[in-house]
Amino acid sequence: MQKVKHSKKVPPKSSQVKLDFVFQPDKNTRILIYSGIVVFSAIMGIIYILYSLKINGYFGFPLDDPWIHLTFAKNFSKYFSFSYYKNEIVTAGSTSPIYTFLLSITFFFSQNEFLISYFFGIVFLILSAVFIYKISTIDFGRENLYALIVTAIIIFDKWLNFISGSGMETTMFIFILLTTVYFYKKRSAIPFGIFLGLILWTRPDGIALIVALLLDYLIQIKLSKSDNEIILFDKKSLIKIFILSGSIVAVYFLMNLMLSGSIFPNTYNAKLTYYTPEFRSRSAFFKYEVWEYFTSGAYIIVMIGFILNFLFIIIDISKKKYNPTILYTIFILIFILIYYIKLPYAHRFGRYLMPIIPFFVLTAFLCYRDLSKLLGKYFKSRQVSISFFIILSLVTLIYSIINCLENRKNFAENCKYINDRQVAAALWIKNNTNENDIIATHDVGAIGYYSERKIIDVAGLITPELISKLHDKDYNKYMMNYLTEKGVSYLAFLREWYRVTNSNPLFSTADSLPPEVMEVFKYEPGKTYILSTVVKSGLMQAEEYMSKRQFKEALAILQQVLPLDYNSSLTYFYLAICYRSLNDLKNAQTNLEKALKIFPEYKNALIFMGSVLKDMRKYQESKSYLEHYLSLNPNDDIAKKYLQAVNDSINANK
What was the pLDDT predicted at 6? Predict the structure, then answer.
């Protein structure tokens, strides 16, 4: 056969431009890279902790929840029981049982709850950074420098470093998610099956990745007919994955079922109930807790890339080509959708949504890599292509570092915030109550850990029988009956959660630490009164108007609230404040009399009545109330001055 001689065609100039920025490190360079990732990840996490220690003078957590894990872990290590008080209150109250088990092991070596928690937070932060780099090297291929830059952006992320010192399982959850994705991409069946099964052991919302992996694999099966680069699991590998992951998940479901009668932990059901969508705005969740959260600071650059990436996904699918960001995008959307539908609440600092951050960043910068190559082709310039990506990523990195360092202050402030409320209340309870006293609270973390008292959780996290009642109209009445039956001795509530009236607090942060006020009350059945959610909300609204000196508006709210519950001395007290501020002293006196009829030892009402009667020139009556008040609160110098002024007026009129 005669060989056909083809004329040599010169390809278009644009196709000759090599746009890849090839950097493939050798073994020694990789060792340096991994060493750098470990060192910088550790340093950034430790910086947050040391900064907080320097500012506050003590170690702390920015959330109350870490002590829930620690309490379960301490009891498990001591009693080998998954319980919340000694070997009692056995329940599936930990959202992340695998994290709790890890903590329990370290209790055999150290009793310092902060060092234990910080250790795991930072170790898993380091491992997460290592695996984001490993995943990035797969996605960026020969352009390893791009993978390194993206890893650096994540290492200096303000929220990942924040949460690494929080005592929570979040960095471990992120590590499990990333490791699962890595072995999925590597098609390593056995480790993939194991980590896939561990996802739910870490957090129930990890089901979003399980669904995303399934959808991504189905897409790959479909596209494998036209995309030769796709490698699928063989049948034997799929069976291994199914058996391994299925067995691990089955044990998880069985454990929860045996402990609490449900396949998921109490915390999952309790939070879904308490923060039910009927009482939360989905639009506000999306606007403030998703959009604004992921467009603040350096995230605005990431968000632009994330949105633009949808275009590249559409283009690749239209060409029947697989795009590696499909998995990340599906996971992010499903993860947010789960919260949008079931629990429109990202919790403090956006904690529930933090696990999507590495995937969010990686998706955006894979998009920017593809965009940079389009620009390079358009301008027929490799320099334009590389410069675009490098400049954009370095700007993001610098912006991220600035955000990260600024966020240390936020971490320190919130550690102090929790210490001054939950920890202080817990220590007060430990020092001022008996060992056999039972404490009812909704914040069971620090109070359960430090008080060493038996806890009744009125929010249902460790008391699952209360979960179904949380949104009953008369839950306050049901709760009081339940607390009486269980022999509760003290209440420890934040006012914003549950409001107690007809009783003076034994411990309160009202005067020193607004806005949230933590209080401890002696619980006396038939006397101590917990307001309904509707009445509490109405009083909070009235308080807001009163703080702005809008007393007519506050009065209108209080007049609507009063018919809902005539047994609230607090409502009458607030009415008296409004009337007095509007110069209606007679109605102020009338409402104070009603408040004191319900609760004769109401300290605030007694001193206020003394003041009102003084203004009405009823000095003898004023004296009586002020003396009664001082018998209950003898160290109040302001009340002593009031009484002196009243006595002077009485003597002057003799």
Answer: 42
Distance CA 501, CA 32 (A): 63
Task: Tell me the per-residue pLDDT of 287-322, one tens digit each, with 9 for 90 and over.
Answer: 999 999 999 999 999 999 999 999 999 999 999 999
Best CA proximity match to 231, nearest among 310, 319, 138: 138
Q: How far is CA 76 from CA 79, 87, 106, in A?
A: 5, 8, 11
Reduced to 3 states (helix: H, G, I; strand: E, B; else coil), residue 493 is strand
Which are the contacts of 450, defined by CB distance < 8 A and separation ≥ 6? 67, 423, 426, 427, 430
> Which residues in 561-588 are b (16+ Cβ under 10 Å) and which e?
bbeebeebbbbbbbbbbbbbbeeebeeb
pLDDT given at position 88: 82
State how far the Cα of 577 lies from the Cα of 602, in Å rounded to an integer.
14
What is the SS3 assignment for 494?
strand
Task: Give 155's contacts (C-beta < 8 A, 6+ positions apart).
Answer: 37, 40, 41, 44, 129
- Alpha carbon 617 to its chain centroid, in Å, reads 53
Q: Distance between CA 30 and CA 39 in Å, rounded?
A: 14
Distance of CA 162 to CAs 87, 177, 272, 351, 408, Å? 33, 19, 25, 10, 7
Is pLDDT above 90 for 652? no
Q: What stretch of H or E contains 90? A: strand 88-90
141: left (phi over 0), alpha (psi -120 to 50) or beta: left
> Which positions ≥6 away from 204 have C-beta within 8 Å?
95, 264, 265, 268
State the Cα–Cα distance between residues 200 and 429, nearest whole angstrom.
35
Question: Is the dihedral angle over the CA atoms 237, 242, 243, 247 positive or is it negative?
Answer: positive
Q: How confident is the model at residue 16 (pLDDT cuts 50, 70, 90)?
A: low
Choose the weakest-confidence range: 152-166, 261-275, 345-359: 261-275
Give the whole-angstrom CA distance, residue 46 versus residue 210.
32
**What residues contact 232, with CB distance under 8 A and at least 6 apart?**
187, 217, 220, 221, 224
Q: What is the pTM of this model?
A: 0.90
Please report, for the chain, how many H helices and E strands are present, in that order: 26, 9
Q: For the chain, how far is it from start to end, CA to CA, in angstroms?
A: 137
Distance CA 76, CA 94 (A): 12
Please report where in the chains the tokens 């002590």 appear, as a residue. Answer: 67
pLDDT at res. 615:
87
Q: Containing H/E element for 140?
A: helix 113-140
Length of the chain: 654
Query: Is the C-alpha dihedral spanning 64, 70, 72, 78 positive or negative?
Result: negative
